[in-house]
Design a protein that fits this description.
With about 425 residues, the chain is of the alpha/beta class. Helix content is about 40%, strand content about 15%.
């Protein structure tokens, strides 16, 4: 394929080109180069692309070009999480500026009123989670008979979350003659089968090899004792380069406990997980985006669909059990050509998970051993480009004086 150097060369209208230029986008990403022309031609598309590669623009920009303002609901984007549905709707609102096309996000955990209004008024673009969307359909609030474009975003995650029955029910209520797009970071058997089921003569496009990570991300592994994770994190946070940090933990209880410990250490922190109300989760994200809080602690609810510019570091406080989750988590930094650092804490019992990640990536990740925190008391390896964290024993002791190491490890490691 001939490489395109501008959005205009892809066939987008001056209005869409102006919208992306207002965002500061200068050149289309690989997935945009491959998908936009196909979507403009009305083809079904199956796209394989990691987060942070511009896939939302790849399916929304050309789809908007084919819309008719005032024509009622024409585009339905199904997303696995509330956060992603909201992000897609916000991107769509940016792309349609200057037109009369209307956009709404529909998801659970909030009231029905505004969503009912958007559906009744025939908003042209809806980004929705499958559960709440089928709820509206069954209540008679949503009519899908005029939908001309269906987009399944993060299809692998939707299947992982058990949304296949809802997706199939929505498909049964849609016109057979439609344009269908399916985007997924991975293409396991279930997603591949779904892609074949829902698309016709689709053009398959792939932007990045499965399991790869962004070029601008520096990845490091810190060997750590379970009860030294928080002191190590606080020590790293003392470095000036750590200015906006997203920390992933395995459990909701662990997120709450770590938030308390970091705040006790003087770090402005908020937490986001599925047990917190949607309003609180949005407030946490807003505070993190604006810099009001420096650290956001999250479970995997935030690994996809969270699009925040300027995240300097992603920390896998708890190593992900699925190698693909590792790729998606660290993809929150180094986005859109920027650089970032991904740090993963690994205890002695988690080496098997680390090897699985390295096997998936096809390469060995850099190990950092700090004697103060290392589970084996190993000597420090050569220092990376970024300075090592301070290793003052007092960092952790002032925070955990009320908790024994066993209590701390139990709180942070289990529900």
């Amino acid at each position: 394929m001939q490489e395109m150097k501008s959005f205009g060369e892809l066939g987008l209208s001056p209005e869409r080109v102006a919208a992306v230029e207002a965002l500061g986008w200068e050149e289309p990403t690989p997935i945009q180069q491959r998908a936009i022309p196909a979507v403009l031609q009305g083809k079904d598309v199956v796209g394989i692309a990691q987060t942070g590669t511009g896939k939302t623009g790849a399916f929304l920009l050309p789809t908007i070009e084919r819309l008719k303002a005032g024509g009622g609901l024409q585009v339905l984007v199904l997303c696995p999480t509330r956060e992603l549905a909201q992000q897609v709707s916000e991107d769509a609102e940016t792309f349609v500026k200057g037109s009369t096309i209307r956009v709404a996000a529909i998801y659970g955990g909030v009231g029905y009123g505004p969503q009912n209004d958007a559906l009744a008024q025939g908003f042209e673009i809806i980004a929705a989670t499958p559960g709440r969307m089928i709820d509206h359909v069954e209540r008679g609030n949503a009519k899908l008979g005029n939908v001309s474009a269906l987009i399944l975003d993060e299809a692998d995650r939707m299947l992982d979350m058990g949304f296949r029955p809802q997706i199939e029910e929505i498909l049964r209520r849609m016109p057979r003659e439609r344009q269908t797009m399916l985007f997924s970071a991975t293409m396991p058997h279930g997603v591949h089968a779904l892609a074949l089921q829902v698309t016709r003569d689709a053009e398959w496009v792939e932007a990045t090899p499965e399991g790869s990570t962004a070029v601008g991300i520096t990845e490091r592994i810190y060997s750590v004792k379970p009860d030294k994770k928080t002191p190590l994190l606080l020590s790293l946070l003392e470095e000036p380069e750590w200015n906006q940090v997203l920390v992933f933990v395995r459990t909701k209880a662990g997120a709450d406990a770590l938030q308390v410990l970091l705040e006790r250490g003087g770090i402005s922190t908020d937490a986001m997980h599925s047990n917190r109300q949607m309003a609180h989760r949005q407030r946490a994200l807003d505070r993190f985006t604006t810099g009001e809080v420096r650290v956001l602690v999250a479970t995997d609810v935030a690994q996809r669909g969270l699009d925040v510019e300027g995240i300097s570091h992603v920390v896998n406080y708890d190593i992900p059990l699925d190698p693909e989750d590792y790729v998606h988590r660290i993809g929150r930094t180094g986005r859109a050509g920027a650089v970032g650092t991904a740090v993963t804490f690994v205890t002695g019992t988690e080496l098997g998970h680390l090897r699985s990640i390295e096997h998936r990536l096809g390469r060995r990740l850099e190990r950092i051993h700090l004697r103060e925190f290392d589970y084996a008391g190993m000597p420090q390896e050569k220092a990376p480009v970024e300075k090592h964290a301070r290793t003052d024993r007092r960092v952790g002791s002032r925070l955990t004086e009320e908790l024994t190491p066993e209590q701390l490890a139990r709180i942070l490691g289990h529900e």
